[in-house]
Amino acid sequence: MGEKTAGPNNNSVRGFDVVDKIKSRVERLCPGVVSCADILAIIARDSVLLLDGPGWSVKLGRRDSTTASFTTANSGVIPPPTSTLDNLINRFRAQGLSSRDMVALSGAHTIGQARCVTFRDRIYNESNNIELSFALSRQRSCSAASGSSDNNEATLDIHSPGRFDLNYYRQLLNHRGLLTSDQVLYSGGSTDSLVVSYSRSLNAFYRDFVRGMVKMGDIKPLTGSNGEIRNNCRRPN
């Protein structure tokens, strides 16, 4: 069993068909050489570049896993959208990433969307450090009761959802973070100053985001004779 249907991933991550197309073309030109893990690392960098964000050198040579763990993916290692600040800090620290890395990497929410089920509790609870008009605007497509609106999507960055910029952090200053795990970055805690810094300086955000992405790409890669080069990214050989 794969990990795509684990709680934190189910109906969340998209675009696997794009990975399939890339892998297929790479395999035709250079069979058995480029791993799916490296393809994903390159895609991450190029996606940011295509949205006017920063670039960086991607280390290559990773190999693919021969196993998956549905249980581990469901164990809490992936921080949920309801995370507290302490939970975020601890989960990132467990992977060798600092609070600064965590806040900078969270800035990837300057693009993308979230489903109603992931932010319903936040927009219907006025005590949750949320600006009222923003909550009301999100409620129009996300009903208080679970049901037909569960999978309705809202952009994480309401100002410039198609650009990799600093508006995500400016939203947090105005208490317009869509997810609880977004707004806790600016809620009177230890990371407030970083949010303020990134809201004021695109260069500071880009610098720390790139450093965080490089560090994240170095987390326990399979190299050498470990793992394999998958022929199909959806399953082991």
Automatic annotation (TrEMBL):
- According to its UniProt record, the EC number is 1.11.1.7
Q: Does the keyword Iron apply?
A: yes
> What reaction is this protein's catalytic activity?
2 a phenolic donor + H2O2 = 2 a phenolic radical donor + 2 H2O
Q: Which UniProt keywords apply?
A: Disulfide bond, Heme, Iron, Metal-binding, Oxidoreductase, Peroxidase
Leading EC class: oxidoreductase
Where do the Plant heme peroxidase family profile domain residues begin and end?
Answer: 1-237
Q: Which residues form a coiled coil?
A: none
Q: Which cofactor does it need?
A: heme b; Ca(2+)
Q: Would the keyword Signal be found if you checked this record's keyword annotation?
A: no
Q: Which family does it belong to?
A: Belongs to the peroxidase family. Ascorbate peroxidase subfamily.
Name used for this protein in its record = peroxidase
- Species this protein is from: Brassica cretica (Mustard)
